Amino acid sequence: MDEQKARMSVAGMTCGHCEVSIGRALEDAGALGAEADFRRGEAVFDLPAGVDPESLRGAVRQAGYDPGTVEWIGREPARARVDGGDYDYDLAIIGSGGGAFAAAIRAVDSGARVVMIERGTIGGTCVNVGCVPSKTLLRAAETYHRAGHHPFEGVETKAGAVDYGALVAQKDGLVEDLRKEKYADLVDEYGWEFVEGEASFEDAGTLQVDDRRIRAGAYLVATGARPVVPDVPGLEEAGYLTSTTAMEQQSLPASMVVLGGGYVGLEQAQLWAHLGVAVTLVGRFAPHAEPEIADVLRGVFADDGIAVVEQRAVSVEKTPDGVTVRTDGGLEVSGERLLVATGRFADTGDLGLDAAGVKTDERGFVVVDANQRTSNPSVFAAGDVTGGPGFVYVAALGGGIAAQAALSDSTGEAPIPIDLAAVPRVTFTDPQVAAVGLTEEQAKAAGFTARGTTFPVAALPRAVVSHRTAGVVKLVAEEGTDRLLGAHMVAPNAGDVIGEAVLAVRFGLTTRDLVSTLHAYLTWGEGLKLSAQTFTKDVAKLSCCA
Could you tell me if 7 and 42 are in contact, meaning their C-beta atoms sit under 8 angstroms apart? Predict the structure, then answer.
């Protein structure tokens, strides 16, 4: 690259006039786009290749101020690969989501030459069509629902009409702001090259991006995943929404059928129900949750008026009023709209992975080792495209490890293999479902002599005073060692509480460690301590905080 962003501390500035003087002095000495800030005591500018940083310091000194050293923002100047390979870049990244950005930042910080290629909208799934838009709409729906449904006597609230178009516009504004702040702006901040275009491997070491050929020392595939549309007769003809297109609608339907009972289906079903839509969910309900957790959530959904049909859809028919879904149990379920939330497959499109010698599994996900390396030693993959846990924080971890491994020959920094033994999993229903580690069944299948204990949230003081008692906490521990193997809960704020259990599982703590750790009274987090106590005591016979 011809220019690199840099920063210089400057002492002696006291006003806006000083900022102008410093900016002019730097640009006269060869800097570009210099901006000084007297409050922060620094100047930021682009430094073209060949311009001596010392000449900039001399110009500032001559202007009557005290210059500090010139520091690179985000990275040192790009350096050639140690192996002397004839490459355009050290790392070429396909995709621009959480995993891609984590890799780019790690690589640039190591002094690598990086190019990022994106065929669609910068930011990937999370900020554009996943976490950010869905969670803001879920919170809005929860707020609306609670206005008309709360447990406190003498407190009168009411829920008016929902202007869904206005809500979507607010959501879109938030997405746009975060896409700029957390993604687009960082490209300039760190200084890697961003290319818009369709990427495809021409061979094992060459990438074709539209009419441009790119050769890199290493490649990272971080293209994410896309919604799966099941092969159900009549589905295409009847028309359907996905979680992406549903959040783009401008009005609320009167009724909706949701296919799929995984975390996306659960969140979407409750989102629409809380906004006043009559919802029927068809499919296996909370298939990855402990049975005690799923049972509580079934009750919550029933209270919310959501009909749950735990059968498989076998056909869909378009009707004058919407759609009708037939199940393998002989039921017919109708709604104005149909939303499909039955999982996600790797979004590898026309990447030409075969030409690159990159293996995929039967579902199309890229096969990687613990360092995110594929069957082609120069190609790495991270995030949802690998079929691992579909969370942006897992994608970011994998992206960073991939960059570290890809550049290890140049940096001498050995990669640290990815560790997914303690991945927090949160479903943002109300109440939330959160888990980490093994279920009781998984622990036994893995060869542990394990036992689980359940603690009803109705016995938690915070739940009692909040009049929100639907929930359960289940802990799974190893017999003998008492080591915590898994924690599972459905409760308000479960996603925040699970962080303590993540640390406990990762660092091999015991249930006794949880019991002996002080927990603030009248918090949701106290539920972990009380749940741990149930291994040895009847908590109903304990006083507060005992």
Answer: yes
Which phi-psi region, left, alpha or beta, contains residue 343 (left: φ > 0; alpha: ψ -120 to 50)?
A: left
Average pLDDT, the chain: 93
Encode pLDDT of 262-292 as tens digits. 999 999 999 999 999 999 999 999 999 999 9
Record the tokens describing residue 348, joined without a space: 């590898």
> Does residue 97 or residue 38 have the better pLDDT?
97
In this predicted structure, what is the pLDDT of residue 540?
83
Tokens 């290629």 belong to which residue? 117
Q: Classify domain 89-226+346-411 at the CATH topology level.
A: FAD/NAD(P)-binding domain (3.50.50)
Burial class (CB in 10 A: 0-12, 13-18, 19+), 207: buried
Mean pLDDT of 38-64: 87
Long-range contacts of 414-422 (CB under 8 A, 24+ apart): 415/371, 417/370, 417/371, 418/370, 418/371, 418/372, 420/388, 420/389, 420/394, 421/505, 421/506, 422/502, 422/503, 422/505, 422/506
Compute how many other C-beta atoms are within 10 angstroms of the C-beta atom of residue 236: 11
DSSP letter at 241 equals B
Mutual angle of helices 131-148 and 164-179, in 10-degree steps: 140
What are 142's two structure tokens?
């929860």
Given this chain, do its domains 89-226+346-411 and 235-342 carry the same CATH topology?
yes
Q: For 6-12, what is the mean pLDDT?
A: 89
Supply the pTM of this predicted model: 0.84
CATH code, 235-342: 3.50.50.60
Would you kindly state where each structural domain of the chain is located, as residue ranges? Answer: 3-72, 89-226+346-411, 235-342, 425-541
| Catalytically active residues, by annotation | 13, 15, 18, 65, 126, 131, 544-545
